[in-house]
Amino acid sequence: MEINTGNTAWLLLSSALVLLMTPGLALFYGGLNRSKGVLNMMMMSFSCIGLISVLWVLYGFTLAFGVNGSAGLNNIIGNFSTYFGTGTSAITEEWLFFGANTGIPTYAFMGFQMMFAIITVALISGAVSDRLKFGGWVIFAFAWFTLVYIPVAHWVWGGGFIGSKIRALDFAGGTAVHINAGAAALALCLILGKRIGWPRENMRPHNVPFVALGAGLLWFGWFGFNAGSELTVDGTTVFAFINTQVATAAALVGWVVVEWFRDGKPTLVGASSGAVAGLVAITPACGFVAPLPAVLIGLIAGAFCALAVGLKYRFGYDDSLDVVGVHFVGGWIGSLSIGFFATAQVNAGITDSKILNASEGLFYGGGLAQLGRQFLGSFVVTLYSFAIAAAIALAIKAFKSLRVTPEAEISGIDIADHGETGYDLTPSGGSGGGGAFAMAGLTNSAPIDADGKADVSQKVAG
Amino acid sequence: MKLVTAVIKPYQLDAVKEALHALGVAGLTVSEVQGYGRQKGHTEVYRGAEYTVEFLPKIKVEVVTDEIDVDKVVDAVVASARTGKIGDGKVWVTSVDDVVRVRTGERGLDAL
């Protein structure tokens, strides 16, 4: 194999960028959450990095991207043995994109896709803040990744029926990532139930600078997510990169304009949320549309999602941090936008019968064919993810591992499930009591050793 | 002796401190508190959802003084804390039976 150094370097860099999105998401969600659950919220993202990375290298990649010998079976799931186990031969194999050479080792592609799997599962956590047992979350993440993410990634990108039969287009994850996670989030939060006191009580974001920092890290990492999804470096890569920027910028404007008119004031939470909505919406379309339509997609997504986040109050489901309103709705907008704006001028593969074998969008002379395919592909993922996520959640509920006790929920899931708290802002720091009392406890009960350090074990116990 | 307690706008703290200093007040205690009076709270909007913030941040200033000076202290606090807008706060006076300086054991006015 002849390694293309430019392509491989870009894909490895993109993989690291996509990984950074998950800690970014943790900050984004953590800041939007109440302070008593900030660590649990961030831990749900970080646990995905740990869990999903291992599962991906173990069996995820081979089931999603290993080509199944039987064409019929390959519509549904990849081959279990191609990349399973301790074999290292794949490192010297070249990853082929629809039979064409890419110049990247298969393991570079494996690593890139690993980061997608991590963040897709982590996205779901925003709907369930402050009340889902951490153990229940780990089981859900494991089961949903195995039963939903792997097959859907195969259907969309691995040669399965959504890509090859329905021929719905998804450049970087509108269906496989955002609609997929959004539908699962809706199912999970419906079965989990509302937070105690919602929506009567104040549950406002506890750290808005975290929200903005998280959105910034997501934006930065998303260049790898979108432009990296071309796998190679060419003209389409640049379109994906530029579209990511302009659509996100437009969505930020769209969201802020809506709330400025509706609520009277432009907010930083709104600007951050708008940016994320734009990133979501441009994801499936970024390698298929021109920059001006990308601006339009962003504006629509920003404005529409700003309105969609209010739906939970109308329908009474506690999608705590608006995974449905932003990722599900934004994913649908982006997926459908391909049916209007996709053009072979940006990506010649769209109409190439050997590659994507799809059609251009309505506004580029392709008629309604592609819009119908986009709808069907998105609908299938919505239905499948919602149904299986609901079944998993019900199974976990049957084992009483879904929801923390009301006492734990009110005093804070951080202490109940993790035994730690996010903040100690008392002037003297110290043990749980805080403030001046912490100092009193330190000198009276906790011995200080020769280095002048307090006995930490006793301090924590206090 | 009297304890003068004032709950004021955080922004006015410097003015109040300067006014008391000018009177020769030897010491005071300041704490961050939350509450509401006739002003009530305010509303904040996040992602279109309106939240009422009932308790507003205020500063509580406490000064112990002798009975002769108490009116001057109250007047100084009121004059320096006033902006004329709603939410300027309250000042009240209570009696203090005794005061002890911890370091020396002095009592009463000597401890002030």
Task: Describe what this molecule looks like in 3D.
Chain A has 462 residues and is an all-alpha fold. Helices cover 63% and strands 2% of the residues of chain A. Chain A has 18 helices and two strands. Chain A has helices spanning 5-32, 38-65, 71-74, 106-124, 134-157, 161-166, 174-192, 208-227, 235-263, 268-282, 291-308, 311-315, 323-341, 369-398, 406-411, 413-418, 435-444, 456-461, and strands spanning 94-97, 100-105. Chain A has a two-stranded antiparallel ribbon with strand order 1-2. In chain A, β1 and β2 form a beta hairpin. In chain A, α1 (5-32) packs parallel to α4, α5 (134-157) packs antiparallel against α7 and α13 runs antiparallel to α14 (369-398). The relative contact order of chain A is 0.13. Chain B has 112 residues and is an alpha+beta fold. In chain B, 21% of the residues lie in helices and 37% in strands. Chain B is built from two helices and six strands, in the order βαββββαβ. In chain B, α1 (13-23) packs antiparallel against α2. Chain B is elongated, with a radius of gyration of 17 Å. The termini of chain B are close together. In chain B, 18% of the residues are buried.
Keywords, please?
heterodimer, A: 462 residues, mainly alpha, two-stranded antiparallel sheet, 2 strands, 63% helix, 2% strand, globular, B: alpha+beta, four-stranded antiparallel sheet, 2 helices
